[in-house]
Amino acid sequence: MSPEARRRHLIEAALSLFARRPPSEVSIDDIAEQADVSRALVYRYFPSTEAIHVAALRAATDDLIARFTLSRSGTLLEQLTASVTDFVDFASNYAPTYLALLRTGAVVVTPSDTDALIDAVRHHALAEIFGRAGITNPTPLTTITVQTWIAVVEGSTLSWLQDKFCSRDQLVAWHTHQFVAMMTTTTALDPAMSTMLEAVKG
Q: Is 58 within 8 Å of 117 (Cβ atoms)?
């Protein structure tokens, strides 16, 4: 196995464990056992527990960013629905990791490392939405509206993971309806938001 393939194998082993337990509860020994390698081999590729945690969390966020890359077919609302569905599925599949990412204090890596990973996803989602809507110079209210909606998706999904108060499809529908409602409200104060509202309707 090449060094790069071995590194990916170790990261995948860590992610497999993160699907069941928070990163803070996963040790080098756990990862070595999951990957069926020696503890020394893990340390050859990752000098510390923190290093492999960061690498694994970065791989998870890269996957999340890929899921929030909008297609260019259908209305913006249809694209958002598909991406939010993928996001919720990711959060469900990696619930402990997702919870840890948003609760930075629960992660073994430093808050600044975790914050950077979360912010990368947020910035990507913001850029994708504006790009698909054809907005190159968003007004402050437009930016705040979309940023707030992204925060709503994060927070409500976090609550949903802890208490499945509705079905996954109902949660996704609520997210997209919130997006339309927030845009409609902002349009009353900032006519520039109408551009995005039109993109949503197709």
A: yes
- pLDDT value, residue 98: 67
Q: Could you give the CA distance from residue 102 to residue 83 in angstroms, rounded to a whole number?
A: 19
Q: 3-51 with 57-201: one CATH topology? A: no
CA distance 134 to 69: 15
Domain 3-51 has CATH 1.10.10.60: yes
Going from the C-alpha of 90 to that of each of 11, 63, 115, 125, 194, the distances in angstroms are 17, 9, 18, 15, 31
Query: How is the chain split into domains, by residue range?
Result: 3-51, 57-201
59 in helix, strand or coil?
Answer: helix
Q: Given pLDDT bands bounded at 50, 70 and 90, which one contains residue 112?
A: low
Q: In angstroms, what CA-CA distances link 71 with 82, 120, 143?
A: 9, 19, 21
Confidence of residue 63 (pLDDT cuts 50, 70, 90): confident
Residue the block writes with tokens 């509705």: 166
Categorize the per-residue pLDDT at 78 as very low, low, confident or very high, splitting at 50, 70 and 90: confident
DSSP result, 75-100: -HHHHHHHHHHHHHHHHHHTHHHHHH
Task: Provide the pLDDT for residue 110.
Answer: 44
Tell me which of 17-21, 22-26, 37-41, 106-110 is least confident: 106-110
Q: In the CATH scheme, what is the code of domain 57-201?
A: 1.10.357.10
